[in-house]
Design a protein that fits this description.
The protein has nine helices and no strands. By secondary structure, the protein is mainly alpha-helical. Helix 4 crosses helix 7.
Length: 239
């Protein structure tokens, strides 16, 4: 009798579990259908662009202050790679302080350009960007939107940003420091004369730093509901 009762209880319990699972599956399916119906391609594009604009604003806020680049090992701009052979020779000539001053000036120029020109240039690039497959990008990896933005616009961003960087290099004295160091180095016997495109180098390094910061903010938006600061971001990045 007890065995029969246990069998009946177990059967009833199994029926309940199956019903709960069925109801849960139905609710999940409804949620997916609702989200799919709401998140159209155009909505996904708008949400993606808004996330990138937010990332730009947060990135500029971090990098445009004193030591924003210089004080961050991931962002710090050092001697141009093609001219790296110069640094130890210049230090051996007793010009170590000038070398340090020059490296600091590169970073100060990047920080100054971030403060004075990054947001309008990057936001123009974001708003003018043609996006294909936005829903797939939203559902992609942690930095999928940033990577798409970088691949689609980096070359276009470099041209106007280079103008800002050149002005900042002149403003902080980096151009004069470089001329002085290059002149001293090029006078050494047997060395290959150095004259890298300093403005282009700093421009690309400065832009790469901003993309790193945008990617970090994108990750926050994806992972932390508190980082979704608008109804659109809450809708598009709903998890």
């Amino acid at each position: 009798m007890k065995k029969k009762l246990l069998v009946m209880v177990f059967a009833a319990f199994s029926i309940c579990i199956n019903e709960l699972n069925a109801n849960a599956s139905e609710e999940i399916s409804k949620a997916v259908l609702v989200k799919t119906a709401v998140i159209t391609e155009n909505v996904a594009i708008d949400g993606m662009k808004q996330a990138l604009v937010q990332g730009t604003e947060k990135g500029v806020a971090v990098l445009s202050v004193t030591n924003g680049y210089f004080g961050n090992a991931d962002m710090k701009i050092v001697f141009p790679p093609e001219a790296s052979v110069m640094e130890p020779k210049l230090r051996s000539l007793g010009l170590g302080n000038k070398v340090d001053e020059f490296i600091l000036s590169l970073n100060r120029a990047a920080e100054d350009a971030a403060a004075t020109g990054a947001k309008p240039i990057f936001n123009t690039g974001i708003n003018g960007m043609v996006v294909k497959g936005a829903i797939n990008i939203i559902n992609g990896g942690n930095d999928a939107a940033t990577n798409y933005f970088k691949q689609a616009t980096k070359d276009q961003l470099a041209a106007p940003y280079q103008i800002k960087i050149q002005a900042s290099l002149d403003k902080v004295g980096a151009t004069k420091l470089w001329a002085s160091l290059a002149t001293a180095y090029n006078k050494l016997p047997g060395v290959q004369k150095q004259n890298p495109d300093l403005t282009k180098y700093v421009t690309l390094k400065a832009i790469d730093g901003l993309f790193i910061m945008i990617a970090k903010e994108e990750l926050k938006i994806r992972k932390d509901p508190a980082a979704r600061t608008s109804d659109l971001l809450k809708k598009v990045f709903l998890k």
